[in-house]
Write a structure and sequence with these properties.
It is built from 12 helices and 37 strands. By secondary structure, it is α/β, with parallel strands linked by helices. It binds adenosine monophosphate and magnesium ion. This is Molybdopterin molybdenumtransferase.
Length: about 600
């Protein structure tokens, strides 16, 4: 995703259609302009919408194939850009504004995207309220009162709403964060409902969370030498250059007969020798001669072409190739054609899997230099969490998160330091977390980081400093704490086991890969066709557990595993992928394309 591109305050109006968003904006604009504001408006429209008219020159030129059409006159200009593949992203659209000529951008529609909004509500429409489910709503303009600490205005009080916008703009401009991102600056606008929240959670999209995390992670700089047989899953700490030619010598790719490429048309050849792999015929091959040769055996000098055995008929020490079309240099593997001496083979940061193990061995290496395993300390938290292995006490659940994490970390080749379940005591927790930072390169906890949780872990983390409590616009896995303890990266994952896994996959795995020295790792994402309708909430990324398969027409299709509660770990076990529904989408219909993240090899 592009960086949030505007340093301008951004304010949206969220409402069901029929509430009168456009009418309200139309009435507000003269007041805002009168107050001296230069206002940009971004409106999301139906996909059939067209600003142009059939018959107009610009329309004709577009229809003739102009993918961008800029039309200009004395008083205005407009750029029309065709986007048949996919709708432009919100952040990109913001870059289309000339921010030097504006004070604020008001947004109508785009209720799916996370940025500060005013909810508009009218009783007579009998529509549900949006604010309880949308953290981006910072104020309400309605014709009734509700029980919330958000600021409320009358939807008919244009001057009041105008004043609210003016205050919003001036607070934005005086906020030290105003250059960070229009999407994050609603912190400065937090009212009684949240300013008492000492931990000031920020709202982030999945991409924003990932970017913030990765920008603060660096590779762990320790290497060790390992035998190739133990190198699976490790990450190379040095570039590998080939010390030899692979193959070392030019050899036959077939069982057959080696002849000279300047001697292809003879009716018969004299077989002068038979060469098995591991041996060689050391005399130059003369015209009229052939050497019977096995796959992998070195071709004799000048014997640069091999005819396969199936095309040959032997009689005594003579061989003929009747009916065979023979091309010069066929069926021969050249010395160094796999890897040439001096060739760059692997860059440091390459993860060693089966082919890499084989290739390293083919270069003659018995050992290689790899990054030391990242040491990860793991904790579970929560009074209700009990270790497995003893009789279940009343009101407890067995700790599954730690074991999920052990598996995930093992897959990534980490060394796990298990700190067990943290006792619910702030001091003990603080001490344990500090100790873990001495022993590990990375610290993971689960549970107790939801906004509003009174868990001790939050108090301990808060004292340890440098930890942000975020709300990621995603499900499952909304709460996430991230920061560092004694300069070691720390993740406070949510409590629910599925949320733990989804947060790990999205945030922790990329961070660990970066710590391990793997550069710019990206998960595999592919498109599949939904075979059941999928619902999501606009404004957040929804990760459903899915099962993909190939249907009878050869199409990749995906369905969910059924019930999607974030406590249902079984859904993760049954899944072979996550289905990712982006914030801009609320319903995926049967037959529509969705993004899936295959999990094979990752969990
Ligand atoms: P929390 O974020 O602490 O409110 O936890 C959310 C949910 O996750 C609660 O239902 C917890 O009981 C559950 N939970 C927390 N830690 C664990 C754990 N280690 N294993 C399984 N479930 C957990
Ligand atoms: Mg808890």
């Amino acid at each position: 995703m592009n960086k949030p591109s505007t340093h301008l305050p951004l304010l949206g109006f969220a409402a069901y259609s029929g509430t009168g968003k456009t009418t309200l904006l139309e009435a507000l604009l003269p007041k805002l302009v009168n107050a001296g504001l230069k206002v940009g408006v971004l409106k999301h429209a139906h996909h059939d919408f067209d600003v142009d008219k059939p018959g107009k020159d610009s329309h004709r030129l577009r229809k003739a194939g102009a993918s961008q059409m800029l039309i200009s006159s004395r008083n205005r200009h407009a750029l029309m850009t065709e986007t048949p593949e996919s709708e432009a992203e919100f952040d990109y659209l913001l870059t289309r504004f000339d921010s030097s000529k504006l004070d604020v951008i008001l947004v109508e529609g785009c209720k799916n995207i996370a940025f500060p909004k005013v909810e508009l509500h009218r009783e007579q429409l009998s529509k549900p309220w949006l604010y309880p489910h949308d953290e981006n709503i910072i104020a309400i303009a309605a014709d009734s009162q509700v029980d919330t600490q958000l600021p409320q205005m009358s939807i008919n009080d244009l001057d009041g709403i105008c004043q609210f916008i003016l205050n919003y703009v001036s607070e934005f401009n005086s906020s030290p964060n105003s250059s960070v991102s229009a999407q994050l600056t609603n912190d400065s606008l937090k009212t009684a409902s949240s300013c008492c929240d000492i931990l000031s959670p920020a709202f982030l999209s999945v991409e924003q969370g990932q970017e913030k995390i990765l920008s603060s992670i660096s590779a762990v700089d320790l290497e060790e030498n390992t035998p190739i047989e133990h190198s699976y899953g490790r990450v190379l700490s040095r570039d590998i250059t080939s010390p030899i030619h692979v193959p070392q010598y030019t050899n036959s790719a077939m069982d057959g007969f080696a002849i000279r490429s300047d001697d292809l048309t003879r009716s018969e050849y004299n077989v002068v020798a038979e060469v098995l792999a591991g041996y060689s015929y050391d005399k130059p091959l003369n015209k009229g001669e052939a050497v019977k040769i096995m796959t992998g055996a070195p071709t004799p000098c000048f014997g640069d072409t091999v005819v396969m055995r199936e095309q040959a008929s032997e009689s005594g020490d003579m061989v003929t190739f009747k009916g065979a079309t023979i091309k010069a240099n066929q069926n021969v593997r050249q010395a160094g054609e796999d890897l040439a001496e001096g060739q760059a083979v692997f860059k440091k940061g390459t993860r060693i899997e089966s082919p890499e193990m084989g290739m390293l061995a083919s270069l003659g290496f018995a050992h290689c230099d790899v990054k030391k395993p990242v040491r990860v300390a793991i904790f579970s938290t929560g009074d209700e969490v009990q270790a497995p292995g003893s009789e279940q006490k009343a009101n407890t659940i067995y700790d599954s998160n730690r074991f999920v994490l052990m598996g995930l970390l093992e897959r990534l080749g980490c060394e796990v330091i298990d700190f067990g379940i943290l006792e619910d005591d702030e001091q003990l927790m603080t001490r344990a977390l500090e100790k873990s930072a001495e022993q590990a390169d990375l610290i993971l906890t689960s549970g107790g980081v939801s906004v509003g949780d009174a868990d001790y872990i939050k108090l301990a983390l808060e004292k340890l400093g440098n930890i942000d409590f975020w709300r990621i616009n995603m499900r499952p896995g909304r709460p996430l704490a991230f920061g560092n303890i004694s300069n070691k990266p720390f993740f406070g994952l949510p409590g629910n086991p599925v949320a733990v896994m989804v947060s790990f996959i999205n945030f922790v795995e990329p961070a660990i890969r970066k710590m391990q020295g793997e550069e710019n790792w990206k998960p595999l994402k592919v498109a599949a066709v939904a075979s059941e309708p999928l619902r999501s909430r606009l404004g957040r990324t929804e990760f459903s557990r899915g099962v993909y398969s190939v249907n009878q027409s050869g199409q990749l299709v995906v369905a969910t595993t059924g019930k999607q509660g974030s406590g249902i770990l079984r859904s993760m076990s049954e899944a072979n992928c996550l289905i990712e529904v982006s914030p801009a989408v609320d319903t995926v219909k049967v037959g529509e394309s969705v993004t899936i993240i295959p999990l094979q090899g990752r969990i």
